[in-house]
């Protein structure tokens, strides 16, 4: 007789008396009753219960009568954490002496140890510190348990271990059928005995599955694979190829958390319906993804990138009928916020003033939403997991699209946790710990839980819960030695020798492991029909080989009747490990599982393998085009793949057309035509998203803009906007610097006061360098941030010395009068002088600004009547910073005839459609398009000197050779 027969006999002994079948889970009980009904027909008067459910029902009235509340295990965790805090404050020399030691892992260990002590019936008075290897540890546990017992008494609470006091024996003739438990504590046995008394029958499992004679009658199939993904895919191939219905398959996972996501993804991809007894993590639904992502946003310091990622994935919505997710993403990315709680309000406020009407409205809405989030989040170390859960529940309800029942279940679970902790003193902590605690809670929530098998679906369960379904085919996944062996891990707070000394009722860890292993192996004797065993012989993540479990060898011996077989024989039976692609099955046994297997079959024919590149190129034209591009780029001849468009793709009127040119863009073209093409023709913009840097406040461009602003304000004030000789005053400069730094701090919060102070001092030193330079000058500054254009705001028409006319737009930092009708233009640079050598006047066309702006300012002075005799004779690159050492590079404007020729050749190259990579590969080092180009500039090195390309590259190469 097997377990089903024996259980039925017990039920049939007294068919009219009520019976309670006590099992570890309701699903196991219902599956056992279904198997009994399938084999013997209907049974009645049988109810399924777990010990916990039965005890709660039995004690509910007595607890209510005495006004005692039950403290749930999850609530006890937080109570114990608070008591540990009090213990650390009361005794700074105790075993766990600092609050900083109370991380979630430590608290959970202490909680588990106290629960074990309570369930063993151990009281604080039963603990003697000298029974421990470390007396300080023993004393700590004694005192903490004493605090816990006092807390329960003061608050009129009891935990599960204390319910024995409130149990009452069953008054009727109910029979209790207890399925062989594993690792029960003293209090669990006391509880069942108090309730059931002499009416208790224990139903033991059959013998261990690998020694069970009937178990050997099962049809056996074994295989191994190179990784868990390959293992699951091979199982699905075989499952789909079999004629039996899918709902005759039960899959038992030795490591549920590792394999369930792999099984789920493969089931979704192949359309195989599956139920999961332990469910799936909440990250498999929108609400769960959003909850985990917003916690990561808090933990990482509120980076904008997290919010934009959530908007892109569709798990965050900001309610506004006029704006799409793309609008919010662009607004956030262009805001310059980057990260940091206090940067959001400051930067959004300052940016709103510069936005257009439509953007301003969006900015106000975004500010309102974000401010609503931040207002409800605590500051400093005043964070609490219960309040964070409350905030999280509100966030999910208002800002997450809840499309499915899974989303609703996640929202409900979060709100339930918030309610559960609301009556417990959780205590304040750092945001890092609060987020970590709440993340652990979320990781414990499961969705899509189908505890019992469902018709029409494969049932997936864990090795500890499976074997009850009675399905014809069972597949045990992950049967490697590591997952199957149940390694014995000593509890550092309660070592086995300490357990033995404290109480005979405290189970030893090695005995617990043995009991669990025996019950597991005996329970698997319920399997009948067809049995598949598999394991991953290699772990790609850890890059190590795995060996099969010893039980796999035992089953093979049982099947063959040969006890002498060893692991080498098992290796021969298992054969080669299967891979993700189906390459081992012979053609007649091959089954197409998905497109990966289709490709594997397609690339194999009777002669061996096909030309893979040709096949892939035929199926994926875009990849073929990419390969062709790479081949052509490495060829000697210039082609469209190098940036030479045989017809002008930039527009029928040429690059210049009727548009104004920007000197910086012209210089960019001379430095790298491909970069210019990406930026100015295709208008592809690299995303300028600030990245959190604990050691930096202002980005390089922000710092440069601030210094330009300071220098302009100061010179405007001391020269009365360029109308009088400067009256230098260091105090005025300090006032302007202080005000500018205050404004910058409000709009761009610093990562820390230390970093802000450091950079403020650096900017003050830069301003001092500027002041000392200006103090010694005798020239008259006249114009600041001079915009080159017409009074109507249009770009100005510029006539070059050779008669060529271009439209020009831009700003000149500063114009000084250096003599009667004689002027100098100045361009501030906040970097170093490396690129501005005196001998490199035009530097291969990459430094045209000084010459073009000189002509433009001169003509502007003439046209506007400011000085019809004006001559701009000098241009200066000034470096008024500590890094630039206050130096300058001054260039006489005596090479204007060459300028027209340079610009003409650059424009001619543009209008030929020539946009090739940089000549100097060092230009690529800091280029933001590097991920697009790769090594293109290096490949172009040989092409530049090739005779076959001389005609096309002639004009551009002539410019590149000009100093």
Can you put this structure into words, describing what you see?
The protein has 963 residues and is of the alpha/beta class. Helix content is 47%, strand content 12%. The chain contains 35 helices and 25 strands. The strands form seven sheets. Strands 19, 20, 21, 22, 23, 24 and 25 form a seven-stranded mixed sheet that branches. A six-stranded parallel sheet has the order 7-14-13-8-12-9, sandwiched between helices. Strand 21 (796-799) and strand 22 form a beta hairpin. Helix 8 packs across helix 9 (256-270) and helix 13 packs antiparallel against helix 14.
Topology of this protein?
Blueprint: H1 3-13, E1 19-22, H2 26-40, E2 46-49, H3 51-65, E3 69-70, H4 73-90, H5 104-119, H6 135-154, E4 157-158, E5 175-179, H7 186-196, E6 200-203, E7 219-225, H8 228-241, E8 249-253, H9 256-270, E9 274-276, E10 280-281, H10 286-299, H11 304-313, H12 325-335, H13 341-352, H14 357-375, H15 385-399, H16 405-422, H17 431-444, E11 446-447, E12 458-462, E13 473-477, H18 481-484, H19 496-502, H20 509-523, E14 530-536, E15 538-539, E16 544-545, H21 550-560, H22 567-574, H23 595-602, E17 604-605, E18 608-609, H24 612-619, H25 621-633, E19 661-662, H26 663-671, H27 673-681, H28 700-718, H29 730-747, H30 753-775, E20 780-788, E21 796-799, E22 805-819, E23 822-828, H31 849-864, E24 871-878, E25 888-892, H32 896-911, H33 930-933, H34 936-945, H35 950-960
Parallel strand pairs: 1-2, 1-5, 3-4, 5-6, 7-14, 8-12, 8-13, 9-12, 13-14, 19-22, 23-24
Antiparallel strand pairs: 10-11, 15-16, 17-18, 20-22, 21-22, 22-23, 24-25
């Amino acid at each position: 007789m097997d377990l089903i027969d024996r259980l039925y006999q017990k039920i049939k002994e007294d068919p009219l008396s009520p019976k309670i079948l006590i099992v570890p889970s309701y699903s196991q009980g219902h599956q056992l009753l279904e198997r009994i009904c399938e084999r013997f027909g209907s049974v009645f008067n049988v109810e399924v219960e777990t010990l916990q459910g039965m005890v709660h029902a039995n004690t509910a009235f007595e607890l209510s009568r005495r006004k005692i509340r039950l403290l749930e295990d999850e609530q006890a965790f937080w109570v114990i954490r608070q008591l540990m805090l009090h213990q650390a404050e009361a005794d700074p020399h105790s075993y766990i002496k600092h609050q900083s030691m109370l991380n979630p892992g430590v608290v959970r260990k202490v909680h588990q140890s106290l629960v074990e002590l309570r369930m063993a019936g151990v009281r604080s008075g039963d603990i003697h510190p000298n029974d421990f290897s470390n007396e300080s540890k023993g004393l700590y546990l004694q005192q903490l348990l004493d605090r816990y017992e006092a807390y329960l008494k003061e608050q009129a609470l009891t935990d599960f271990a204390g319910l024995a006091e409130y149990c009452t024996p069953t008054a009727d003739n109910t029979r209790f059928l207890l399925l062989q438990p594993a690792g029960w504590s003293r209090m669990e046995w006391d509880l069942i005995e108090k309730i059931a008394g002499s009416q208790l029958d224990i139903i033991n499992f059959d013998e261990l599955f690998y020694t069970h004679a009937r178990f050997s009658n099962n049809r056996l199939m074994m295989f191994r694979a190179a990784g868990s993904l390959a293992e699951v895919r091979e199982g699905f191939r075989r499952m789909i190829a079999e004629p039996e219905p899918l709902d005759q398959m039960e899959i038992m996972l030795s490591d549920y958390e590792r394999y369930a996501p792999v099984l789920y993804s493969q089931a979704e991809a192949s359309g195989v319906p599956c139920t999961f007894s332990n469910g799936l993590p909440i990250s498999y639904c929108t609400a769960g993804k959003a909850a985990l992502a917003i916690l990561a946003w808090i933990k990482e310091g509120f980076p904008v990138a997290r919010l934009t990622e959530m908007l892109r994935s569709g798990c965050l919505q900001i309610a506004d009928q006029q704006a799409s997710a793309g609008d919010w993403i662009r607004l956030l990315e262009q805001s310059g916020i980057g990260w940091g709680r206090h940067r959001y309000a400051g930067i959004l406020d300052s940016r709103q003033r510069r936005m257009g009407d439509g953007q301003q409205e969006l900015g106000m809405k975004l500010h309102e939403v974000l401010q609503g989030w931040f207002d409800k989040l605590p500051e400093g170390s005043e964070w609490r997991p219960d309040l964070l859960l409350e905030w999280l529940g509100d966030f999910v309800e208002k800002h997450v699209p809840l499309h499915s029942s899974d989303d609703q279940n996640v929202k409900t679970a979060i709100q339930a946790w918030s309610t559960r902790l609301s009556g417990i003193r959780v205590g304040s902590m750092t945001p890092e710990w609060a987020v970590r605690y709440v993340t652990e809670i979320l990781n414990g929530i499961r969705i899509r839980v189908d505890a019992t098998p469902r018709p029409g679906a494969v049932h997936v369960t864990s090795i500890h819960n499976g074997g009850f379904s009675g399905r014809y085919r069972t597949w045990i996944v992950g049967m490697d030695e590591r997952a199957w062996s149940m390694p014995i891990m000593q509890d550092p707070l309660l070592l086995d020798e300490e357990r033995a000394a404290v109480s005979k009722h405290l189970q030893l860890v090695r005995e617990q492991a043995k009991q669990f292993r025996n019950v597991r192996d005996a329970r698997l004797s319920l399997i009948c029909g067809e049995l598949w065993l598999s394991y991953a012989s290699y772990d790609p993540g850890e890059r190590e080989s795995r060996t099969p479990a010893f039980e796999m060898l035992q089953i093979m011996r049982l099947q063959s009747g040969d006890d002498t077989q060893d692991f080498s024989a098992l290796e021969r039976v298992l054969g080669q490990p299967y891979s993700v692609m189906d390459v081992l099955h012979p053609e007649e046994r091959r089954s197409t599982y998905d497109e990966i297997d289709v490709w594997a079959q397609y690339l194999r024919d009777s002669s061996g393998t096909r030309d893979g590149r040709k096949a892939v190129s035929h199926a994926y034209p875009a990849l073929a085009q990419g390969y062709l591009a790479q081949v052509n780029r490495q060829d000697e001849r210039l082609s469209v793949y190098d940036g030479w468009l045989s017809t002008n793709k930039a527009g029928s009127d040429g690059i210049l057309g009727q548009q104004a040119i920007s000197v910086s863009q012209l210089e960019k073209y001379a430095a790298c035509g491909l970069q210019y093409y990406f930026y100015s023709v295709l208008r592809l913009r690299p995303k300028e998203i600030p990245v959190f840097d604990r050691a930096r406040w202002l980005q390089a461009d922000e710092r440069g803009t601030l210094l330009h602003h300071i220098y302009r304000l100061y010179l405007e004030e001391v020269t009365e906007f360029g109308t009088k000789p400067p009256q230098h005053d260091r105090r005025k400069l300090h006032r302007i610097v202080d005000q500018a730094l205050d404004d910058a701090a409000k709009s761009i919060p610093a990562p820390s006061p230390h970093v802000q102070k450091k950079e403020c001092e650096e900017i003050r030193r830069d301003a001092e360098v500027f002041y000392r330079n200006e103090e010694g000058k005798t020239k008259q500054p006249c114009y600041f941030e001079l915009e080159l254009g017409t009074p109507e705001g249009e770009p100005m028409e510029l006539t070059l010395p050779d008669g060529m006319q271009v439209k020009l737009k831009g700003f000149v930092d500063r114009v000084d009068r250096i003599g009667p009708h004689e002027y100098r233009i100045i361009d501030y640079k906040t970097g170093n002088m490396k690129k501005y050598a005196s001998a490199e006047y035009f530097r291969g066309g990459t430094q045209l600004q000084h010459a073009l702006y000189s002509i433009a300012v001169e003509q502007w002075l003439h046209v506007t009547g400011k000085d019809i005799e004006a001559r701009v004779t000098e241009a200066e690159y000034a470096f008024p910073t500590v890094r630039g050492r206050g130096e300058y590079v001054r260039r006489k404007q005596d090479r204007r005839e060459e300028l027209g020729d340079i610009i003409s050749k650059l424009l001619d190259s543009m209008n030929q459609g020539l946009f090739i990579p940089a000549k100097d590969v060092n230009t690529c080092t800091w280029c933001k398009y590097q991920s697009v180009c790769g090594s293109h500039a290096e490949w172009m090195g040989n092409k530049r000197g090739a005779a076959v390309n001389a005609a096309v590259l002639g004009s551009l190469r002539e410019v590149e050779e000009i100093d």
